[in-house]
Specification:
This protein is of the alpha/beta class. The protein folds into three domains: about 160 residues, TPP-binding domain (Rossmann fold, 3-Layer(aba) Sandwich), CATH 3.40.50.1220; about 45 residues, no CATH class; about 35 residues, no CATH class. The chain is built from ten helices and nine strands. The strands form two sheets. A six-stranded parallel β-sheet has the order 3-2-1-7-8-9, with helices on both faces. It has a three-stranded antiparallel β-sheet with strand order 5-4-6, with no helix packed on it. Strand 2, helix 7 and strand 3 form a beta-alpha-beta unit. Helix 1 packs across helix 10. It is elongated and about 60 Å long. It starts with a helix and ends with a helix. Bound molecules: nicotinamide-adenine-dinucleotide. Nicotinamide-adenine-dinucleotide binds next to strand 8.
């Protein structure tokens, strides 16, 4: 059954030059970065409800920066896994047009994807909450927390905290990609964080086939997805890539 669906996915991807991948924390779990909902890791130590809200950041930036430093160390040492590299290969082959990611870990770019929309920002860039100046993380002195801008304002990663709006540019680009794709691969997301969870719905309404890749069913599975490939993202995407490569030879 799953083999048939992998072949069906490979054919859909092979036939299209307008495939968009929409990814969530699950695609990076096999790189060693825990997702929000899985057991273990960072989020048992740092409850997102306590640390990942903009109110928490304003109330105590130093405390939140302590979590950000630990998370930063984990993200800096993580490498793309075969799911990321399969998407990068599919872009090189001309099938995957873009990746819309909810992740902040930069692993899609590290794998080689060039059109990546970071819907929830990036841990690699910091922004001043007073004057809006942005910095690359490596330009900033992180010895004393919270780090400060030249204007003495507090710096925060461009990562979107709960309670913050999505940056307009990323939102508009994501909408455009969703409205104009033929196949959307929805990989490793529980699709409960709003408004990101509307992106596959928008693609579906615009006529795209929605293919989910996840260890388990989600709230998209029954009403939005055309089919689900249930299992590990790295194994499934490598198999889809092999299928597409096979079709290109015939
Ligand atoms: P989530 O934690 O809510 O859900 C992860 C989903 O991935 C689940 O449905 C799970 O079944 C699935 N999954 C886990 N391991 C998988 C695997 N190996 N193969 C296939 N599927 C797998 O994640 P979300 O929906 O992205 O929402 C969480 C929010 O937190 C997002 O905003 C996200 O950006 C952020 N976040 C980011 C990172 C990161 O940058 N790597 C990590 C944790 C959380």
């Amino acid at each position: 059954m799953k083999e048939d669906l992998i072949q069906k996915t490979a054919q859909a991807v092979f036939r299209s030059k307008k495939v968009v991948a929409f990814t969530g924390a699950g695609i990076s779990v096999e790189s060693g970065i825990p997702d929000f909902r899985g057991a273990g890791g960072l989020w048992e130590k740092f409850d997102p409800a306590e640390y990942a809200t903009i109110e928490a950041f304003h109330a105590n930036p130093q405390k939140v920066w302590t979590m950000l430093m630990e998370m930063g160390n984990l993200l800096e040492s993580s490498k793309p896994n075969p799911a990321h590299t399969a998407l990068a290969q599919l872009e090189k082959m001309g099938h995957v047009r873009s990746v819309i990611t909810q992740n902040i870990d930069h692993l899609h770019q590290d794998a080689g994807n060039t059109r990546v929309i970071e819907y929830h920002g990036s841990h690699k860039r910091l922004v001043c909450l007073t004057c809006g100046q942005q910095y690359a993380k490596e330009e900033v002195n992180l010895d004393a927390l919270p780090p400060l801008c030249r204007c003495k304002g507090v710096l925060k990663p461009t990562v979107i905290f709960f309670g913050e709006p999505i940056p307009t540019g990323a939102h508009l680009q994501a909408m455009e990609e969703a409205r104009d794709c033929e196949v959307m691969l929805v990989i490793g997301t529980s699709a409960v964080v709003s408004p990101a969870c509307d992106i596959p719905v928008l693609a579906k309404r615009a006529g795209a086939a929605i293919v989910e890749v996840n260890l388990e069913e989600t709230q998209l599975t029954r009403y939005v997805s055309d089919w689900i490939l249930q299992g590990s993202a790295s194994q499934i995407l490598q198999s889809v890539l092999d299928g597409v490569a096979g079709l290109r030879k015939t």
